Amino acid sequence: MSDGWSDMKSRSLINILVDNPYGMVFLRSIEASDEIKNADFIFNLLDGVVKEIGEQLVVQVVTDNASAYKAAGHMLMEKWKHLYWSPCAAHCIDLILEQLGDLPQHKNALSKAKKITKFIYNHSWVLALMRKFSKKEIIRPATIRFATSYLTLQSILDVRQPLEAMFTSTQWLNSAWGKKPEGKEIQRHILNDKFWASVTYAILSTRPLIQVLRLVDAEKKPAMSFIYNAMDEAKELIAHNLGAEEAIYREIWDIIDARWEVQLHRHLHATAYYLNSQFQYSERKSSNPEMKLGLYHCMEREGFFGLHAAKSTIAKRSPVEWWIQFGDSTPELQSFAVRVLGLTCSSSGCERNWSTYSQVQTKRRNRLSTLRMNSLVYIMHNKRLRDRRLRNKGLKDDDDPLVCEDVASDTEWFIDDETELPLSDLQLEDLSMDVLKGEADQGGTSTSTTPHTSTSSAAQQANKGALSKCTKGTSFPFPFPFYVHDLRDDEQFFVDHPGAVPISTAQGEELRKTIGALAYIECSSKTQQNVKAVFDAAIKVVLQPPKQKKKRKKSQKACSIL
Q: Is position 83 within any domain?
């Protein structure tokens, strides 16, 4: 996945992330301020990433919908015949919401709602009074820009009665703000039924799209096999919400179709829908010929597919898990289904407010080398992605993955400082992960990389000769950094303290050449408790031994006793 953005210093950066059924991993961020970001540049960049990861492991490339990215995507598909380029689904839906926001009734509701929120949140007394009456906030920052607008409209509609009670209360009427023209204008909006009618219309015509956005932006399960059906159901639900009158909903459908049919919809979406067991066994299964593509006879085969457990767990398991569990009777189809159903639809992980470079490039840390800065950004990004993945896995069905309470995603509504990730929280263990189930069989046994503290016995083994212990690390079929192998498990070198055994700089250089280290860092004894480790693919950290303090010889002067 790739996306371009600019930081506070106007540097043009391109994020590269890798997604698989088990989560998303930040690979690197490339500064492209001096580059002309045309199709050729984007193609060469993405082509290099495909080669680095391994072209046999890449199923699709997801980018935003800019013309340069689109052209580069088609160039990639021409070169790599098995690879697909797809536009970001979250970006497409966000653009749909932006276009809907220009419709007269939507524009009227959004503009007045923004006036209300700005007035309330810019005056502390009014804000305190609102919280007293409503017992909740009315602004709901979201991870997607234009989703914030409609989530906030829904929140305002939810507290309509408390707001009306507030602006008709004696506290408000007797206050200084209640007598000012600005306050009276807001009061008129709150007590105007036409305003609430426009808010209701805007919500009814966008709520199904917000649901699709939740689907593609959440990380609880890959969304590729659900988006085709979700978009069809969203259109039908919008028509139902608007009274099934074509004269009313046709304008909204046209905006959706212009993005879905022309930009977003791909053959992968239809194929993934067809392979999704939840829809294949559903009574409402689509009979559109587009979905069949010669695969239907495979799905009708008995074997594991006919088991009661296979049918009873269709709605409980994700499609990827279902095929892994019950698809053994058709191994080739199982492999194909897992590859397709495990795909993401969105590159919203790239589009979020990445401020890590801004955090790293502070006045106190602006002397960091490029290697060390990129390594620090790599660790911080992946720590955030890991935390987000764990948080999303713990979400209940009624939790909203779009809502992000601590992120200010839209200055038009509310500004909330983003909490900076303390550097002291970054630990070497933050990137330790398990080898994915099913991949260890190709490159060795599945090895758990749960962090542990090196013991004294390990230190004794290293004392026998750290250099002689260095051997090639376990090879994995996936070369990108999601598969981080803890070298301590192979006794190659020990980085934990106090059991770490320091070696000389000369030994370290030889060690670096022997094991093919991608990074070599020397740390003084004062920083050994907070090792500045570099993670880029397989990691080898070499510690410089502490300098031995020279002991002063005590002068031995002869003394005589008188």
A: no
Whole-number pLDDT of residue 86: 86
Average pLDDT value for the chain: 69
Give the helix/strand (H/E) hosting 476: none
Q: In a 10 Å sphere around its CB, with 0-12 CB exposed, 13-18 middle and 19+ buried, how is residue 471 labelled?
A: exposed
Residue 203 covered by a domain = no
Closest residue by Cα to residue 103 from 148, 67, 149: 149
Q: How far is Cα 267 from Cα 269, in angstroms, rounded to an integer?
A: 5
C-alpha distances (whole Å) from 269 to each of 219, 228, 233 are: 17, 6, 15
CB 152 within 8 A of CB 113: yes
Band of pLDDT at residue 310, cut at 50, 70 and 90:
low
Integer Cα distance of 215 and 113 in angstroms? 26
d(CA 460, CA 457): 5
SS3 category, 31: strand
Strands 84-87 and 60-63: parallel
- Residues 530, 533: Cα–Cα separation, whole Å: 9
As a whole number of angstroms, the distance between CA 280 and CA 273 comes to: 9
Q: Which domain holds residue 446?
A: 439-530
Looking at the DSSP bridge assignments, the partners of residue 19 are: 24
User: Which phi and psi angles does 314 have, rounded to 5°?
Assistant: -60, -45
* Any domain includes 468: yes
Tokens 């005056």 sit on residue: 123
CA distance 547 to 526: 10
Give the Cα separation of 164 and 70 in Å (integer).
48
Which strands sit side by side in the sheet containing 12-20, from one edge to the other?
2-6, 12-20, 23-31
Domain presence at residue 480: yes
Q: Domain count for the chain, please give it.
A: 1
**Segment 281-300, tens digit of pLDDT:** 666 666 665 555 434 433 44
Between the alpha carbon of residue 71 and those of residues 30, 37, 63, 85, the distances in Å are 20, 12, 11, 10
Question: For residues 545 and 501, what is the distance between their CA atoms, to the nearest angstrom?
Answer: 8
Give SS3 for 3. Answer: strand
**Of 333, 386, 323, 378, which Cα lies nearest the Cα of 356?**
378
Asked if 73 contacts 60 with a C-beta cutoff of 8 angstroms, the reply is no
Residue 243 burial class via C-beta count within 10 angstroms: exposed 0-12, middle 13-18, buried 19 and up: exposed
Amino acid in the structure at residue 486: D
Task: Spell out where 413-543 has E strands.
Answer: none
| Per-residue pLDDT tens over the stretch 514-544 | 544 333 344 333 333 333 343 333 334 333 4
Does pTM surpass 0.70? no
For residues 453, 454, 455, 457, the Cα torsion angle rounded to the nearest 10 degrees is 160
| Residue showing tokens 């190709």 | 442
Residue with tokens 């026998």: 464
Q: Is pLDDT above 60 for 405?
A: no
